[in-house]
Amino acid sequence: MKYRNVGKSGLKVSEVSLGSWMTDLRGSEKYELAKETVKLAYEQGVNFFDCADAYGNGAAERFLGDVLSEYDREDIVVSSKVFFKTGAGVNGGGLSRKHIFNNIDRSLKNLNMDYIDLYYCHRFDPTTPMEETLRALSDLVSQGKILYYGVSEEWGAARLMEAQKIIERYNLYPMTVIQPQYHMMDRYIEHEIVDVCERYGIGITPFSPLAQGLLTGKYKKGQPYPEGSRATHQADKQVNNLLTDENLDKVEKLSKLAAELDTNVSVLALAWILRKDIISSVITGASKPEQLKNNIAASGFVIPEDALKEIEKILGFERFERHVG
Predict the structure, then answer these.
(1) Which residues contact 196 (CB under 8 A, 6 or more apart)?
(2) Structural domain includes residue 238
(3) pTM (2 d.p.)
(4) Annotated catalytic residue, options 42, 55, 148, 200
(5) Domain annotation covers residue 21
(6) Catalytic residue status for 55
(7) How many separate domains does the chain show?
(8) Domain membership flag for residue 220
């Protein structure tokens, strides 16, 4: 496993990390499988574990805290998030100072930890002044409850720039990281966000790097969805919207290219994201230890330049640029 700094900070995280968004804890058998996966991740060099207060209404944090309690706190990097409603009252959600302060204590209790390494704003809150949110996060750093903070994709490039102005104006602790969705089929952060992050030294930790399973190659055009796959049970149907003939054709071509490089499309897709130095870690999900082992193979995998050019041809992405005259 290779490690990278998170932005311009001194914090080092594994190139491949483990997320908790889709961790299934229903029943003792699935709980034990999830526990085995986290332990295997640690044994394989993964030191970064991503979570959120909203995952399972706190169950994911409690699970992660229980499993990671076996390891030295210095050896692990844990993140969580705040925004979604966790309380019934009008102040039970959002990014107000009150909700942030309430929920950091809730998350610390769930995780059974004294501090959280990376703390993200899970969404943008248009009902709270940005200055209030940033001051609250900076104060949590001062108090030692969090070490670094960041935001989600919904802040966008313009809001990131506005946040930087506020941080500089009031000499707040800096924003260290952003967690957007980023994968071969969704490259919107390359339009503006990557440039902003590079300018200010903000690390990027993408979630859904395998496009919710599309880039594993298990979905085939004209064939039924694999039994038990996300496409058969995910309530919001996010993955189903990605399973277009156009995308499946691209995955087939990418799979052939991966085979030529003596790997598989999942490893290729993760290594492709890691081609950018501003990427600190790819947050992967794994319901089985075998999936985790495969994902970890992406760390240190270098895609040859000619293969990168072929990938660009397959994806057909064009960065937005506005030209006048």
Answers:
(1) 157, 160, 161, 202
(2) no
(3) 0.94
(4) 55
(5) yes
(6) yes
(7) 1
(8) no
